Amino acid sequence: MAVRSSLSGLRVLLVDDDVDSGEFLTLGLELYRIEVHFVRSAREALEAFVRLRPDILISDIAMPGEDGYSLIRKITQLEASQTRTTPAIAVTALPDDRWKALSMGYDAFLRKPIDLKVLVDTIAELAVHSRLSA
Question: Which fold has domain 2-133?
């Protein structure tokens, strides 16, 4: 629980075209005092990413228009010249996306429906690893 308590003030950018899922995760993460910025498309996410510089990215993979793979590619390109890379979690209902998501640049993969405890533990692990690498 000590690791979880260190999540207070962490900035998370959450990308999901499903409003219900996004709002559920936002409310759940806010219980841990995580600052959540919820957007519904890859385009909005890229704009928010540049503006907010989040500590963690959580993105759905299967979104209409531009998908989560395109988003992680663009973020990777943005961060190519920087020393800091933002940990990213892919979420999807499709189990076959795991390998592709991890090979495209996501650091973790969670299958929908998301278990909030597993998500929080994953965020904590990535946040600690990111801080140790900085």
Answer: Rossmann fold (3.40.50)
